[in-house]
Amino acid sequence: MSTDREESELLAFLSSPASYKENPARIEIIETHAARVFLAGPKALKVKKRVTLPFLDFSTLANRRQALQRELDLNQAHAPQIYRSLIRIARSRSGALTFGDGTPIDYALEMNRFDQSNLLTEIACRGPLPLELRKDLASMAADYHRSSPVRTETPGSAIMRSTIQGLAAALTEVVPQGADVGY
Where are the domains of the chain? Predict the structure, then answer.
């Protein structure tokens, strides 16, 4: 089956309330440059788009699965009330899409849905972040950095240089050098 047709079938499956055991009244979809989140009743399912960008490659099933697993591994410890599991979206023997058994065609990160007004971007739009929240975020970031393994095989300056060069190249593709960006 062609990738485009399979992706269309996947989107139709995830967009249909009948696909979910909770049988929600409707499905809301949030799109980013690299993912889609399907808000279905009390849960949210996140799938990676089948895209290749200068800074990521989600063109293969293995890459999408790996990225979602990594996201689960990184976030579940900090928000276990939200991040649940990685689930398989498969083609059953009858050819229909299903959650679980069958030939995998994609994976989804299963999360508990939360009030969108609790998104950090939404809180920030209402004004300065509360001091206690800023302290909690700083503490969480510091704890994360303290517990991360130290990489000694490559100097930090080389990693930073590579990151900056990659970002500069990606930005140059979007906005060519010398272009008037209106600033």
Answer: 3-114, 131-174
